[in-house]
UniProtKB/TrEMBL annotation:
<keyword id="KW-0472">Membrane</keyword>
<feature type="transmembrane region" description="Helical">
    <location>
        <begin position="150"/>
        <end position="171"/>
    </location>
</feature>
<feature type="transmembrane region" description="Helical">
    <location>
        <begin position="300"/>
        <end position="321"/>
    </location>
</feature>
<feature type="transmembrane region" description="Helical">
    <location>
        <begin position="24"/>
        <end position="42"/>
    </location>
</feature>
<keyword id="KW-0808">Transferase</keyword>
<feature type="transmembrane region" description="Helical">
    <location>
        <begin position="269"/>
        <end position="288"/>
    </location>
</feature>
<dbReference type="GO" id="GO:0016746">
    <property type="term" value="F:acyltransferase activity"/>
</dbReference>
<keyword id="KW-0012">Acyltransferase</keyword>
<dbReference type="InterPro" id="IPR012429">
    <property type="entry name" value="HGSNAT_cat"/>
</dbReference>
<feature type="domain" description="Heparan-alpha-glucosaminide N-acetyltransferase catalytic">
    <location>
        <begin position="18"/>
        <end position="162"/>
    </location>
</feature>
<keyword id="KW-1133">Transmembrane helix</keyword>
<dbReference type="Pfam" id="PF07786">
    <property type="entry name" value="HGSNAT_cat"/>
</dbReference>
<feature type="transmembrane region" description="Helical">
    <location>
        <begin position="238"/>
        <end position="257"/>
    </location>
</feature>
<feature type="transmembrane region" description="Helical">
    <location>
        <begin position="125"/>
        <end position="143"/>
    </location>
</feature>
<feature type="transmembrane region" description="Helical">
    <location>
        <begin position="341"/>
        <end position="362"/>
    </location>
</feature>
<feature type="transmembrane region" description="Helical">
    <location>
        <begin position="100"/>
        <end position="119"/>
    </location>
</feature>
<protein>
    <submittedName>
        <fullName>Predicted acyltransferase</fullName>
    </submittedName>
</protein>
Length: 370
């Protein structure tokens, strides 16, 4: 996922200093993914740990765009280093396409696991979207400067908004933004083969991937700021906060007319979540890189150092533990005075088990990259 264990910024020569705050941010985000995806019972989940049913946002809706934002940062840092080193374009693009393809295939594998019923194959998905965003953003970064990237990101958000509210949808009308009754759903039904998450539409569908690319671009812009060698660390923190606050405010205001919606990945949702991500990164950067307090973030660093492995393990474990889960739900969750807490404890247990497995790799300095 555009992960580079040697995360020195361009211009630092042979320095191999890792950006611990980025590893921690990535790791805490992956841990969040595992927790919200692994309750013991979906009938007993605290509301903040569920996605918003449609318009609106919950803390769970932050996780996916945060990860895409982090992918963008990683692209800026690692590909900036490759540019500075004069690595041949053909070699870079070859590895880029290979990495995107492998991430996409892993996403398909996880959607089929454990039954591998190919008649029910779902092409869109979380890793599949990450693969597409990574590929587009990496190529864009290689061939353009930051101003051109910002223009592309802004154009993607504006054009998506105009398309969603202005283009008539057959049998639906113009400007409707209801589940299954909007332009993105119509495009999905026309172009997406196989099974879709919601039958006639998919939250990781074709058209909504366009603004998701803008989420990746926002991360690339933040990454460029972090990589600026002429700027002090303190000023980087300030500008990350300022940019984040402005994006968050603009997304909130835009949401009055184009609602914040994770399923549609609306333009307001992109700005809102990218703004929050920038401010979270600024906070982690300040505490860890500027103040030097990194010990507390060890859990995040361990997860973040093998993010793809942690995500795959977290996706597979619930299926492997299904017999135990059935017993736990019947014997513990259903009989508990606090069933939501019992359900959450299961999710935390899955996350802890993932951590143990990933920590074993971390101790042996094994970092699996795609």
């Amino acid at each position: 996922m555009a992960e580079n264990k040697n995360t020195e910024t361009p211009g630092q020569g042979k320095s191999t200093r890792r950006l611990v705050s980025l590893d921690a941010f990535r790791g805490f985000t992956v841990a969040g993914m595992i927790v919200v995806n692994s309750p013991a019972s979906w009938e007993h989940v605290y509301p903040p740990l569920l996605h918003a049913s449609w318009h609106g946002i919950t803390p769970t809706d932050y996780v996916f765009p945060f990860f895409i934002f982090i992918v963008g940062i990683s692209i800026a840092l690692s590909y900036g280093k490759l540019k500075a080193a004069g690595v041949a374009t053909g070699k870079v693009l070859g590895k880029t396409f290979r990495r995107a393809f492998l991430i996409f295939v892993i996403g398909i594998f996880l959607s089929l696991f454990p039954d591998f019923n190919f008649s029910e194959i779902r092409i869109p998905g979380v890793l599949q979207r990450i693969a597409i965003v990574f590929l587009v953003c990496a190529v864009l970064f290689w061939y353009t400067n930051w101003k051109q990237q910002a223009v592309v990101g802004a154009a993607a958000l504006l054009l998506y908004w105009i398309a969603m509210v202005c283009i008539p949808v057959p049998g639906v009308g113009t400007g409707l933004l209801e589940p299954g009754k909007n332009l993105a759903a119509w495009v999905d039904s026309a172009l997406v083969p196989g099974k879709m998450w919601q039958g006639t539409w998919d939250p990781e569908g074709v058209l909504s991937t366009v603004p998701a690319i803008a989420s990746g671009i926002s991360g690339m812009l933040a990454g460029r700021l972090i990589a600026a060698t002429a700027m002090s660390q303190e000023r980087k923190v300030i500008w990350l906060y300022i940019a984040g606050l402005c994006a968050f405010a603009l997304g909130s205001i835009w949401g009055w007319g184009f609602p914040i919606n994770k399923n549609l990945w609306t333009s307001s949702y992109v700005l809102y979540t990218s703004g929050l991500a920038s401010m979270v990164l600024a906070s982690l950067f300040f505490v860890i890189e500027v103040q030097g307090h990194a010990a507390w973030a060890k859990v995040g660093v361990v997860f973040g150092s093998n993010a793809i492995v942690a995500y795959v393990i977290g996706s597979i474990l619930p299926d492997l533990l299904m017999p135990l889960n059935s017993w736990y739900v019947g014997s513990v969750v259903e009989g508990a005075n606090w069933p939501q807490m019992a359900s959450l404890l299961w999710a935390l247990g899955i996350c802890a088990l993932c951590y143990i497995l990933v920590y074993l790799l971390y101790r042996r300095k094994i970092f699996i990259k795609i």
